[in-house]
Amino acid sequence: MGEAFEFRHAIEFVLLLLLVLAAAWPLGSAAARLLAPAAGPRPPVWRAPFAALAAALERPLGAAATQPMGWGAYARALLLFNAIGLVATFALQRAQGFLPFNPRGLPAVRWDTALCTAVSFVTNTNWQSYSGEVALSHLVQAGALCVQNFLSAATGIAAMAALARGLAGRGGEALGNAWSDLIAITVRLLLPLALALALLLVACGVPQTGRATLEATPLDRSAATAQSIALGPVASQVAIKQLGTNGGGFFNANSAHPLENPTPLSNLLEGVALLALPAGLVLAFGRLAGDRRHGRALLATMVLLFVPAALALVAAESHLPPPLALHGISAADGALEGKEVRFGAFESAWWGAATTAASNGSVNAMHDSFTPQGGLVALVLMQLGEVVFGGVGSGVYGMVLFVLVAVFVAALMVGRTPEYLGKKVEAHEMRLACVGLLAPALAVLLGTAVAAACPFGRASVANPEAHGFSELLYAFSSAANNNGSAFAGLAADQPAWNLLLALAMAIGRYAVLLPVLALAGSFASKRPAPPGPGTLPTHGALFVALLAAVVVLLGALTFVPALLLGPGVDHFALASEGVR
Amino acid sequence: MRRDARTACLVFGLLTLCTGVLYPAVVTGLAALLLPRQASGSALQVDGVTVGSALVGQPFAAPAFFHGRPSATAARPYDALASSGSNFGPNHPALRERVAADAARWRAALGLDAAALLPVDLVTTSASGLDPHLTPAGARVQVARVAAARGADEAAVAACVEACVEPPALGLFGQPRVNVLRLNLLLERRVPRTR
Question: Domain residues for A411?
Fold first, then answer.
C-alpha cells in the first residue's frame, strides 16, 4: 500500500466501516419511524422535548400541515421553501454590515459571492468561494448558513421519503405532507443529533463562543509579537455540516483547521457522522418503501463501490511523490503536503474518499495537493452522481435512478416489462430517470469545457498544465453533484465562476429532485403488480452486482476522456519523473 | 399559491428560530457552563499571559526553540485569522523549488549531510497552515541544534521531546505527534537557556 500504511491502519479501516454501519442501523430505523404515518411505540423520554417542539411548530399551520399532497404540491412546497431560504441567505450576507453579532465589523459580502453561497447552501452543496473566518459575521454563519445546513438536508430527506411513499402506495396519489415532513426531519431527527455531536466536539476542543478572537503573545517573540486566533460559534455549525452532508466549514481550511477538528477523536466523530446518516437513510428508504431487503441491497452496493475507491486513495497518498524524493526526504509518512500531522496520510485519504463518496465535501486535507491518483478517486466518486452514500436523502433517490436503469436492462434481456418494487416501469419513468441521470453529467462536462475555453477559466487555475485542468473539472464535478469540496487553488471568487457554479449547483439539485418527485407521483398512481417469473429480484448478490456495474459503466463512459486529460496526464508526468 | 407561500414563510421562520437562534444559543450556553476552557479556544497561559492556543500552531524562529512545519498562510506564517494550505499539486514547479530551498535550509541549520533523510513534515506545508504538530521524527532531528543553542545537555532536551510524544488515540486513531508549543513551553521550564 505504501510506506506510510501500517497494519493498524488496516484495522482502523475495517473499524471505521463497522462504526458507520453500526450507527446507520439505529439512525435508519429512527428516521423510518419518524416518516412512516403508522403510530409506533412511545418515543423514549429524551426524545419527548423534540417531539413536543415539532408539535408546537405544526400547530400554527393548521390544516396545511396535515393535508396529503400529490407530487406537484409536494414539489411546489419544497421549491417555495428553498426559494425563501435562498432569498434570506442572500439578504443576510448583503446586510451583515448593519446587523449585530458582527464583532469584527465585516462589510457586506459582494453580490456574486453572496448569490453563489446562497445557492450553494440551499442546494446542500456548500461550495465556498469565500473564506469563512475572513468574510462572514457570526450572525451570517449561525443565522443563515447553519440554518440552511439543517434545511437543505431536510429537503433531501423529505424528497427521499416522498419517493419511498410513492413506491409503497397502492394506487392513490398522496406522497405525504411536505411541511410536516420538513419540521419532523429538522426538529426530531437532525436537531437532537446535532446537539449531541456539537457538545462532544466542544469537549474535544472545538470552540463555541460569541467572541471574535483569542489574542495571544507568542512564545518566540523573534518570530511574531502577536497572534490573533479567529473564534466563533464553530461547534454548532461543524456538527450539522458533518451530519447533513453539507460540508461548508466555519473556517477556510474546513475540518483540517485545528479548531474545527482538533484531535484524532474529533476526527473519528466527524468522520463517522459524515457517512452514518446518508447510510442510515438508505435503510430507512427500504423500510418506507416496504422492502427492507432492498434497502440493505442498496447499502451493500454502496459499500461495494466505496471500499475499493477508499483503498485506492489510501494507497495513492501513502507514497512520497517522486519530486520530493529527489531532495532526500524520508518516505516513511507518505505525501504530507496539504495534510495535517495529527491525521497523517491514512486518515486524510480515508476522509477524502468518504467526503466525496457522500456528498459532504468537508475536507481534513487539501485535495488539490493529493497525488494525481488520489485526486482521480475523489473526482470519480463525485462524478458517479453522488450515489455512493451520497447526500442525505439525495444519495438514495439518485441511486434509485440507477436502479431503474438496472431493472430496465435486466428486463430487456428477457423481453419483459421492467418492474421496480411491484410497480411497472414504463417509458415515462425511464425518461424521468434519464433526465435525472444526465443533467448533472452534462453540467459537469459543458461547464468544464466552457471554463477551459474561456480566458477567465484558464487564468484562475493555480497549478500549471494537466493539474490545472483537473482544478476546472473538479470544480464542476463538485458543484453539479452538490458535493462542495474543491481543488482549492482555483481562484473561484469572481463573478464568472460564482454565477457558472451557482447554475451548475442548481441544475445538480433540481434537475434530479424534480424528476424524482415526478417519479414518486407516477409510481404512487400505479397499482402494485405481483412479481412474475421474469422480474429481477431487487435484493441479493445478483442485483447488487448488476447495480454496481451499471453505476460504474455509466460513470466511466461519461467521464473517462475528461479524467485522462486531467489526473491521467498529471500522473504520467509525475511518474516519468522517477525515470528521468 | 399565495396560501402556500404564506405557509412556506411561516415554516421557514419557525425553523430558522429553532436552528439559527435556539440551537446555537443552547450549544453556546451549555459549552460555556460545562466546558468553558475548550469553548473559548483552549488558551495556554504562562504567568497570566496567554501565549497561544494549545490547539493552534504558531511560528518559531530562534534556534533555541523547536520549529514547526512551514506554513502556507498568505499574509504571514501561522496567520490564525486566515487559514490556508498551499494547494500545490505534486507536479507544481513552485512546490519543487520550495521543497529544495527548505531542505537545504534545514540541512544547514541541523548540520545534516546530503545522505541523511529529512522527515517529510519539515518540508511540507499543512492543510490549514496552522498545524500545531510535528512528527516525532521531525522533533527528534532538531534536538542537537536546540541543545547547542541553549548550551544544554542533549539528553535533557531529548527527554522533553519524548515526554511530549502523543501516541495514536486508543492505539489506533491518528498519528504519533508532538505539539510544538507544548514542547517549547516544557523546554523553557526544564532546560533553561545558559546562552
Answer: 394-579
